[in-house]
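Shipment paperwork, digital attachment
Item: protein structure file
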Amino acid sequence: MKILRLRLAAAAIALAFSAVALAEGQGLQLEREPVAPPTDLDEVPVYVIADKIEGVGSDEVEASGDAELRKPNAYIKADRIRYFRATDEVEAEGNVRLFKDGDLVTGPRLRMRVDDAQGIFESPTFALAPRLRKRQLKPVEGRGAASAARLAGDDRYRVSDATFTTCKPGDSGWAVSAGELDIDMNRSVGTARDAQFTFLGLTTPSFPYATFSLNNERKSGFLPPVFGAQDKLGLEFALPFYWNIAPYLDATITGRYMQKRGVQALTELRYLQPWYSGIARFDYLPRTR
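Attachment content:
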């Protein structure tokens, strides 16, 4: 039989760590009714709800059995939660679910500092809520899984042995697999190391380093290289560079090496205006064999 069932209701008991009470030396304080939230985030109480709650001294509380920890910038559910007031850290184990700024991260174990949203999540799966930025037509969102995730503050994640995509569930348009992946939802940029990209079922070779846009916007940078072989050209290799010059102007500059013809430079310039558009190409091959 459960020792005590604590729920958010008229008769519920919320364990609140009140900064004002702590400053007066009262330690952990049991609040019968939630108080109005202070304007300063540092003074906002932390509410812990569970089947069983135990206090350890005046700085630590342990909750078990359908445990929850609530604060305006984070909501955590788990089988077991420990909160350390002095460092504002929380440890959660067993069926952990973290809700933060609309994001949902799940996994077996979490340790994080609540206010600055920094910590470590073991073997997580995550779904990142849409974010709409200035001068952006489509909200930024994403989902994936990893062996470990480091919460690096608001809108930033660093994940290891990860897969990530901005496609919706059931859509396999594209994905990236990386040994290490930085997801910066604030800048809408992903940075991958030891990465492979999959497009419509086709997987690229491994790249030691790559960056990509998270919201389908154009971004300057190198494109995947092209390898080939022909009788007249021999072995060939091409490395394109995309230059996002302006919203109405971009260019692709490609260096191409051909075993039997030498080095070639290829340039394609695209322009778009309300009343006209076009493409200009310029190729240069200094010598042939």
